[in-house]
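User: Before I run my own analysis I want an independent prediction to cross-check against. Here's the chain; please return only the structure tokens and, at the end, one sentence I can use as a sanity check.
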Amino acid sequence: MMLVMLLMAAGPAMVVVREDDVKRDEAPPHGAIGMSTAYRISDAVPAPRSMEFRKRVLHPGAAIGVHRIDHDEVYYVLAGQGEVTSDGATERLAPGMAAYLYKGAQRRQQALAWRRS
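Assistant: Structure tokens:
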């Protein structure tokens, strides 16, 4: 009986989320500069959870404003080009590139060129 209770408390073995089910058009966070399409994958996963997974398409000219992060984050570019700034250091990213940003960093992302894939 105790084993069954422990297994139930651990949560489901897996949760599958279709990105179309969590897709929404919205202004980017932290300043609402332009428009974006957000896919809040992990928001559809029941608690408790210990990580976040999201996908965001920044439309031309859109940007996520400057803000401090309270966890590490990875930004990976699928298409188009963008710029990421973390604690004053700025890098341009292209498809196939990732930026790993550390907890406590003050960061910002901006779309430079956008291509719908």
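Sanity check: The first strand starts at residue 23 and ends at 26.
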